[in-house]
User: Fold these one by one.
Assistant:
Number 1:
Amino acid sequence: MADILDRVRSAPPTRDAVVSLHRDLKRSTGIGLPLRLWDGTELGQGELGFRMVLQHPWSARALLRPPFDLSAGEAYAEGAIDIEGDIEAAMATGERLGAGLPAGALERMRLTQRLMALPRPPRRRHTRRAHLHGRRHSLERDRAAIAFHYDLPQRFYETFLDPDLVYSCAAFASPEESLAVAQQRKLSLVCAKLRLTPGSQLLDVGCGWGSLLIHAARHHGVRGVGVTLSATQAEAGRERVARAGLSDRVEIRMADYRELDGTFDAIASIGMLEHVGPDHLDRYARRLRTLVRPGGLVLNHGIVLQDGDAVRTGRERTFLSTYVFPDGGLVPAWRLVRATQRAPLGLLDVQLLGPSYALTLRRWIASLEAAHDEVVAVASEADYRIWRVYMAASAHSFATGSLGVAQVLSGREATVPLGRDWMLPANRRATTG
């Protein structure tokens, strides 16, 4: 029955309407979107590095209806469209297309009318959307948000991350460098900034699979505690610690930062900033201050907005907040610095690593695409598509400078040497042996 309906809907008038809409979009934006229709018709420029495939006569309407960001991501995730070739180039072209649409009400109304004349997409139950309940950033809701993103099968993450399972921005010295080497440099950079020495007590808030803790214990002789709200990460992280022979020096707990007690010589918070929520940054910074001993150092590493006036609260109706990071928020770097100083923690250094995250994401995408069949086998086709498009859109945002990564080093009544040479990983290894 579905095949019969598709054949009826794919009659020439529907195809001609899509061709006409494509022509109007090119006239308005100057972009001939590389397109293949459900009947094999090809339209647009072939030199942009990708081609979008409309699988059904109703795919164009599913792709372009408002809100565009959510609809476009959903159309791809659910298979209404495919993207062949360079998916980051597709994200860049989509952004240019949206920016080039006519601003006049009359022109936009005409385009909307052309779109609404196309066949209506079938109603679907969006099973992969996040549905969280309770007060935003309560303990219970934060646990649900973290579980939604991180508690996919362990093997899913292993298909695209580096061997040490570092799920955050690497520190590349050159674009040709391997991801594994760049991730080791990032871990070494964090340890150098925190001035870790044998016997240091390290707390890793949002510890992932324990990569930093294992590295710090092996190379700097620390004792460490890591906390995560992800059951997948906690279980696999403990197994990795045991395999490394470090169970007597490294502990991974299922806990929230608000549930911690005790004090530590150094604290790392890598990739936690996005989960805290813009309205809770001051509370988070104050909590870190209570957990670090006088003279201790705190390193906060997180994604930031480059627009100093912008804030993403996590309440926005976007593909990212609906399918990837529910309740995830972003702020400009100055707001993280302000929260740090209000804690109060003494500000010691700020470094931006945004270009390295674009390279990191491109390596993840390439590995994910190469492992497509295995990813689908351990998770699902929808999960593969969601992560492919989310990482491609993120890579484009870092490459164009709308997103950045800030490492903010602070201390509680702490000082550091003059200059910045002391925090370079190579110099740190040379001076500590």
Number 2:
Amino acid sequence: MIVVQLLLEVVFMFLGSMVWRGLAAAGVRADAGGARLASREKMINALAALKRNVEATPSAEEAHPAIAALRISSSTKFMRLFASHPPLDERIARLRAAA
């Protein structure tokens, strides 16, 4: 019975990550909406400021390993499956590419 439960937990974790990826796509649309409302340069500057803040703070793994599961974004391809947002560099690049 425990094996079935563990298998179902893994399956539902991956299904949940697909929903999470859909929410990440909504975040990309939100970046574009913010750029339309405030201006593309202001949105890029806001994301760059957020990136500087994130880089100045210790990583989740350094702060506490249990917090690592709450990561907003990740640079490794596998962990990006579970991230709620694309990396900040990618979000900034998308805004710069949109003319």
Number 3:
Amino acid sequence: MACLEIGCGGGDLAFDMARMVGATGRVVGTDIDEKKLELARNEAREQQLHNVEFQLADITRTEPPTEFDLVHARFVLTHLRNPVQALAKMRTALRPGGVIVLEDIDFRGYFCHPDCAALWRYVELYTETARHRGANANIGPQLPALLLESGFEDVEMNVVQPAGTGGEVKLLNPITMENIADSVVAEGLASAEEIDQVVSELYEFARRQDTVLSAPRIVEAWGRVA
């Protein structure tokens, strides 16, 4: 198979795909961050994966060639002002019978125990910052409809949600809050002091062994080109 990974970042999924398709297959990973792409190229060399390549490309601006059997995009559409336009370009990249696989978030699906006010404030700030910038933090449940609207057939879906009492899944939330802090302040949604307090409370909650914390609900959806 020839596979296209949109928004490949450091290439982790592209490496998995390259191993799956084997020496007779081909994987192309694209991203808008050249630094991440260079990391991916170096890692591919270290892993001696010769059937994967990485290209600087923006799915909102360029149209990939029609030469792929599979297109995959994880946590990409949530950031776009016009996901339908991007899906049209992804569809163009597929040969007849080709498959598209999407994964994206639904920030409304968080859960925790016991209740944590800092978590809900973080969810609110992330969601509103995304909305202010034309993105959609709750696009996940829309994926099947978007695929049908874009002309795909045999559309199906699944839902997954990481959660736990310890480890990386609990640290994801305070780390993300730290990473979006400047954007939240720029949009006038919270002060730097409030964000520092939310981050501190999220770290404290995450480090307690008696708490349960989830990541966002994740919707997986896929379809086929006739």
